Amino acid sequence: MGIVSVLKRVDNAVSLVTRSLCVISLAAIVIMFLLNVFVRFVPVYNFTQTDDWIQIFLVWMIFLGAQELVRTRNHFVVEVLTERMEGLVGHIARIVVCLIELATYAIICYYGWVWVFKAQAYMQSIPWMQVRVCYAAIPVSAFFMTCYGVRDLVIAFQNIHQHYKTVQLKI
Q1: End-to-end CA distance of the chain
Q2: What residues are paired with 130 via a beta bridge?
Q3: Around Cβ 36, how many Cβ atoms within 10 Å?
Q4: Rounded to an integer, what distance in angstroms lies between the CA atom of residue 24 and that of residue 95?
Q5: Mean pLDDT over all residues of the chain?
Q6: Full-prediction pTM beyond 0.90?
Q7: Which helix (H) or strand (E) holds 113?
Q8: Alpha-carbon distance 78 to 83, whole Å?
Q9: Is 83:123 a contact under the CB 8 Å cutoff?
Q10: Which residues contact 78 (CB under 8 A, 6 or more apart)?
Q11: When comparing pLDDT for 97 and 165, which is higher?
């Protein structure tokens, strides 16, 4: 079993976990929201913590969803530039875009961890849970986005290498 095969299996597992967590988060948000609305009209129980739980699930769902969009290359990217340029200039532009994306993800990951480790506050209505649980979604998802940014950069370099091979064959 080659390294590429192992990486593809890991990628598929990460994708499955990410998508599952997003679906579970969305379901939890909907259930808590509906229960909170119901309890306001039928006061059988006081859901004081639902706002914080909804916030936690929403933040994790958003960042994990962004991670999955980066993995599948369905996120917002600057492709208008790279798709319209042809030849060597287009390949170089794609590499520059990949480098910018990679730097952005790496910076978000680094400062996300700094933010998580510096956070000392607790959730407002969940006194036993620190805010860092919510903030951890940022560096965790940014770590995987950085990995996918490296993947895209490698592919961009492979494409420029393939371009040189094609040009040499024509000569």
Answers
A1: 38
A2: 122
A3: 15
A4: 36
A5: 88
A6: no
A7: helix 87-118
A8: 9
A9: no
A10: 97, 100
A11: 97
